[in-house]
Amino acid sequence: MEGTTPPARRGLDGVVAGQTRLSHVDGLAGQLIIGGYELTELAGRVGFEEAAHLLWRGALPGTEELEELRRDLAALRPVPAQTIRVVRAAAQAPPIDALRMACATLSLDLDAPDDISPAADIAAAKMLTARFPTLVAAHARVSAGQEPIPPRADLSRAANFLYMVHGKEPDPIAARALDTYWVTVIDHGMNASTFTSRVIASTRSDMVSAVTGAIGALKGPLHGGAPGPVLDMLTVIGSSDRAEGWVRNELAAGRRIMGFGHRVYKVRDPRAEVLSRVADEMTAAHLEDRRPFDLARAVEQTVLRVLDDVKPGRNLRTNVEFYTALVLQALGLTPRSFVAIFACGRIAGWCAHVIEQHAEDHLIRPQSEYVGRRGLKVER
Ligand code: ACO
Questions:
Q1: Could you tell me which of 335, 330, 41 has the C-alpha nearest to residue 183?
Q2: How far apart are alpha carbons 177 and 172 in whole angstroms?
Q3: How far is the CA of 316 from the centre of ligand 1 (A)?
Q4: Using CA atoms, how far apart are residues 308 and 349, in angstroms rounded to an integer?
Q5: CATH level 3 topology of 227-330
Q6: Residues 182-213: tens digit of each pLDDT
């Protein structure tokens, strides 16, 4: 080895890049810890605003703190006209691109956009967390040739989002399902978009810049995932009796089954566990809509059995994407917008990491292993 730098770890695999009090992923135990609580303890028992408070302030809120946070976030939902103009200009762009473009303009609406003091960071976190659903819903409307629907402050965050997309108030089960989904994806260790936000924040850059960069990282298919292909798979299979033959053919052709397997979790992903329960609740509530769920459940059981048979010892379990697809589709949301809807949950986690990184105030600046040539001379 030339020089003094140790060899690079490809993709930083196995490198511990920093400390955090926010969340921890234990892939062998199948645990996701958020601010000290296991996800399975939080999800369904605390709402999104409570989980955001936990990440931003280090503790679940008391009754008055929660009321105040809900009020603040609801008041911040409307977005400035200049931002809506960007959403309209991006009508034909993918929703996650429109969100990135619109998010970048939100610093225009801050009195001191470069202020990274704790108070300014909390203010920016509230503003971004309040407005992401408004932006995604407005884009869904304009991309379908419809007018955006202004947000309402009297609805919960999830109910308001569904109202802004569909133009009618959702039933409480649907709103609760979306709220639980957003709690479930609120933070997930040092994933690529979170790391991106921290790298940007570590230069003492501002919250809006850090979050805009994080959206760019989330957009890629290796991170934002692909719940869309799960739905494509279910459509192609069509009926449960066709599942086994289809799965065996796919595996024989060397293809992967979407919605199964995970790089970190070698046992069941706790997020899949939580969203599976959400899917059950929705099925029970909407008996007339249960066919997609019944098919998905039957396909899931067949895939797990066939994977164990064809890929023994690989521990391939249902992952979060499978249930995300089922839950978001049942809410009448289009696969195209799934990644942007995910960002509406993850935004609170990104902001928390920016707050934590600003408090740490240490530049993230790794080295690289030089593998280029040396000693060349300019010949003229
Ligand atoms: N279907 C069939 N076989 C699979 C699958 C799958 N979904 N996932 C892994 N395998 C097999 C591989 O073919 C490989 O088999 P081999 O030992 O015979 O070569 C073995 O399991 C190990 O595969 P790796 O690629 O080493 O597993 P890795 O942990 O890197 O893969 C990944 C994780 C990318 C998620 C993979 O399971 C996959 O492609 N799943 C399908 C796509 C998907 O659902 N993505 C969303 C993931 S959730 C999220 O990231 C938020």
A1: 41
A2: 8
A3: 7
A4: 35
A5: Cytochrome p450-Terp; domain 2 (1.10.230)
A6: 999 999 999 999 999 999 999 999 999 999 99
